[in-house]
Amino acid sequence: MSVIKVLDNIYSVGVLDWNVREFHGHTYSTKRGSTYNAYLIVDEKIALVDTVMGYFADELITNIKEIINPERIDYIIANHVETDHSGALPALLNLCPRAKVLGTAKCKDGLHRNYYAKMNFEVVKTGDKITLGKRTLTFIEAPMIHWPDSMFTYCPEEALLMPNDAFGQHYATTERFDDEVDECELMDEAAKYYANILWPLGAIILKKIEEIQKMNIPIKIIAPSHGIIWRSQPQKIIDAYLNWAKNETKKRAVVVYETMWQATEKMARKIIEGITSAGVSAKLFDVATTDRTEIVKEMLDAEGFLFGSSTHDNGMLPTIAGFLQFVKGLMPKNRIAGTFGSYGWAGGAVKEIEEIIKEAGMEIFSPGIAVKYLPDEDEFKRCFDFGVSFAKKIAGKL
Ligand code: FEO
Questions:
Q1: Domain final residue, candidates 204, 219, 245
Q2: 170 CB near ligand 1 (under 6 Å)
Q3: 3-state SS, residue 152
Q4: What's the CA-to-centroid distance between 165 and ligand 1, angstroms?
Q5: Is the Cβ atom of 150 under 6 angstroms away from ligand 1?
Q6: For atom 1 of ligand 1, which residue has the closest CA?
């Protein structure tokens, strides 16, 4: 990514990672790549807000050199210790050893434990401020959005919020601003990011947005550390976060299954016929062949989930087991979930899935429906009726 001017003397100097397809280990698929954003603020003093993934350090440094000699950097703001934002810090510090690194106490500890590098680190807290010249930077601690060390940086003179991971998207494009890209694609990536990374943190996010609203600070631009900069409609992403954090749902269902010899799949198809016949929209996913990150995104605003599995070794199949483990960690609130599946000689999957639904804190729609081998005509009718009842439950008519 070449250097992009965000505002007068404020530049985006981060990098585009077109080819990354997995993030956070294998937990997040990034079909549109990602960006690691860093912002250079040139005033009487010079500050860099965040760095980039370590293997892109040279590109970051080249970008900075287009604007200034890196040795002139006075401050490096480390909003977050995770290596996609701090990986290039040690290489950069070699070029500006006198630069002061600013971050939270947990960031200081995290940087030490990641790099064991010598750095001139100063701990900052919410409300602390540095003056660059015409501009100042204020810090807002944001623990668990999404790591304990996380912090937002705010420039009041520009009404510019740099909240690191919050409001981000894994979305590589040559365009850098919300008014330059397809809005549906942008919101799709923003939702996917929220669902897969931030969903369990809704209560903390709501509190933080409330805290910032009480500070009464204007926000004209939100420049996150991944993806597009929100300069045209910053309130759009704030409102979306408020909805997602409140776990607001639509009357729709997501059906996710794994099947061994297609009996469970046939049940899923009949169930979804029942759901839609009752006027509720539904989507169906075979978890073994569908990108899990996309399924989770689809679940973000759906009120009801149905999970199906064939029974194997007295329990559910392994792909849906891993999927449900992930879903449990997301702790979805205000959801109704049920289960179904086919078995051969002894069941087990339905019971096992029901246990996970309860552990995840979702309202259980029971009893689940288990069928021996392939459903017969009556059992298909039961599957259909199960779908109808589930739809009525979602619609509040049961
Ligand atoms: Fe983009 Fe939490 O790192």
A1: 245
A2: no
A3: strand
A4: 5
A5: no
A6: 165
What's residue 28's pLDDT? 95
Nearest-CA residue for ligand 1 atom 2 is 82
Instruction: Tell me: do 262 and 229 sit in the same domain.
Output: no
> How far, in Å, from the CA of 35 to the mean position of ligand 1?
11
Spans of the chain, pLDDT less than 70: 1
Q: What is the pLDDT of residue 1?
A: 67
Q: Is the CB of 17 under 6 A from ligand 1?
A: no
The gap between the terminal CA atoms of the chain, to the nearest Å, is 54
H-helix or E-strand containing 105? helix 105-115
Residues 64 and 44 in one domain: yes
Q: Are strands 302-309 and 250-258 parallel, antiparallel or unpaired?
A: parallel
**Total domain count for the chain?**
2
Closest CA to 199 of 187, 211, 210, 191: 191
- Joined together, the tokens standing for residue 211 give 């805290």
Please count the residues of the chain: 398
Span from the CA of 36 to the centroid of ligand 1 (angstroms): 9
Contact 259, 376 (CB under 8 A): no
| 312 in the same domain as 200 | no
Tell me: do 95 and 65 sit in the same domain: yes
Q: Which CATH number do you get for residue 352? A: 3.40.50.360
Domain boundary among 197, 230, 245: 245
Question: Do 229 and 312 fall into the same domain?
Answer: no
Q: In whole angstroms, what is the distance from residue 212 CA to residue 303 CA? A: 29
The overall pTM is greater than 0.85: yes
What residues make up the domain containing 86?
4-245
3 state SS of 208: helix
CATH code at 150? Answer: 3.60.15.10
